[in-house]
Amino acid sequence: MSSRRSLSGGRRLSTSDEAYDRVRRDILDGSLMPGDVIVEERVAKTLNMSRTPVREALLRLERENLLERTGRSLSVRTFSGDEIADIYSLRAHIESYGARLAAERVTDYEIEQMARVQADMVRETEAHRLEPDLDRLRRITQLNQRFHQLVIRAARSPALERTVSSLVLTPLLYRAQLWYDEDNRERSAAAHDELLAALRDHDRDRAERLWHDHLLYGRDIVLAKLATDESGDGLPG
Description:
- The chain is mostly helical and 237 residues long.
- It folds into two domains: 3-76, Winged helix-like DNA-binding domain superfamily/Winged helix DNA-binding domain (Arc Repressor Mutant, subunit A), CATH 1.10.10.10; 81-230, GntR ligand-binding domain-like (Four Helix Bundle (Hemerythrin (Met), subunit A)), CATH 1.20.120.530.
- It has helices at residues 15-28, 40-47, 51-63, 81-105, 108-130, 134-154, 158-168, 171-174, 182-200, 204-230, and strands at residues 3-5, 12-14, 37-38, 67-70, 73-76.
- The protein has a three-stranded antiparallel beta sheet with strand order 3-5-4. Strands 1-2 form a two-stranded antiparallel sheet.
- The longest helix has 27 residues, at 204-230.
- It starts with a strand and ends in a 7-residue tail after the last helix.
């Protein structure tokens, strides 16, 4: 199979990998919404590749629970409020345990990495407040995910990292920051700052408690938005 270099200039991607990365990104950033039908031939035409690598990519996304099959149709997976509540509650337990481990094992360099990501997120958030912009909002979402990933990485537990990665693939969770208002973002930023302080102090109990509360706060925001959507007011994309 032919291969192509990724846009970042890093490892070479097979055409199947490229199709997977593209469709996955479109699902997670909201370009493809829950319930949208995925047509293999249309994806292949858009990406200028044959249908075989696209088929492989879509099967991979189906295994990851990002796509679901109804009869012969394949569409972006939808999630009920109960499923979202369960997933967020799992994240709260698992990621807070990760924060506890991170407080024991984190290095000064890793804390500096987190602090840089947090500073970038605060800067982007302030710019968005002054001049709202969807692309900037997506950048804030990516930075938020990066911060959470760095916390888990500092825990130095490959099994924990794999478990968390499978949970945050849920599109609604990935895009939760898109639905935060200004007060929500300020509170989220404060929680990040408080976690950084707990990690610097290597305070395991405080790190675990802070991160558990932070994840449950995010859960409550998403569930409130889902309830609004069910009432007919709609969710922002």
